[in-house]
Amino acid sequence: MSLQFLLTALVVVLIPGTGVIYTLAIAFGRGWRASIYAALGCTLGIVPHILAATLGLAALLHISALLFQVVKFAGVAYLLYLAWQAIRSGGALSVEACPTAQRGWRIAWRGALINILNPKLSVFFLALLPPFLSGDPATATAELLGLGAVFMGLTLVVFVTYGVFAATLRSRLLSSDAAMRWLNRSFAALFAALGARLALEKA
């Protein structure tokens, strides 16, 4: 595994995307423990896409316009649902002083769905991973899975860091109703914007 791959993967993971925004929303709303579940879920949501890239299914998704559109619009609907959950009082992603209790597995599952329902991720890994292979066909599958595992490890570490940092600011935000309203509206707007961007993506 090359240093170039590690640096490339780290830069990609550090750029805030849907998973980071979800992790931050959970951290601000429910604290650092919940944010770890969110980060774990987002990381596990990468698994199907790495397997798709390894098995060649990503190429099929890229070629099949119908399959791509089905997964894409399921993802769009889900992001709009998360936007509603961020702005709705008592919603799963709303930032409130006394949030309703949620099981860790539910937080993780929502995070996983964010990535599972993003068809661009399979195509992304199909483009990202092969250039870093050794060129030996006999070890190509193992190398792809290894690179994917490293990418997932970096994702988990970076997302947990984002979440724990955000959680440290939580107590300050909870003392201001205006700050909580601003955060809820901001997260709702971000998820809605990400849903609109996904809707415009092409295979």
Report on the structure:
Helix 2 runs antiparallel to helix 7 (104-116), helix 3 runs antiparallel to helix 9 (140-168) and helix 6 (65-87) runs antiparallel to helix 11 (177-200). The chain has helices at 3-14, 18-30, 32-44, 47-55, 57-63, 65-87, 104-116, 120-128, 140-168, 170-174, 177-200. It is built from eleven helices and no strands. It has one domain (18-200). The chain is an all-alpha fold. The mean pLDDT is 90.
Question: Which helices and strands appear, and what pairs or packs with what?
Answer:
Blueprint: H1 3-14, H2 18-30, H3 32-44, H4 47-55, H5 57-63, H6 65-87, H7 104-116, H8 120-128, H9 140-168, H10 170-174, H11 177-200
Helix pairs in contact: 1-9, 2-3, 2-7, 2-9, 2-11, 3-7, 3-9, 4-8, 4-9, 5-8, 6-11
Please name the defining characteristics of this protein.
single chain; 203 residues; mainly alpha; 11 helices; globular
How many helices? The count is 11
Helix and strand run? HHHHHHHHHHH
- Tally of discrete structural domains: 1
The tally of strands reads: 0
What fraction of the residues are assigned to beta strands by DSSP? under 5%
Poorly predicted residue ranges = none
Query: Whole-number radius of gyration?
Result: 18 Å
Q: Quote the distance from N terminus to C terminus.
A: 30 Å
Main sheet summary: none
Shape: globular
Assign the structural class, choosing from mainly alpha, mainly beta, alpha/beta, alpha+beta, or little secondary structure.
Answer: mainly alpha
Chain-averaged pLDDT: 90
Secondary structure: helix percent: over 70%
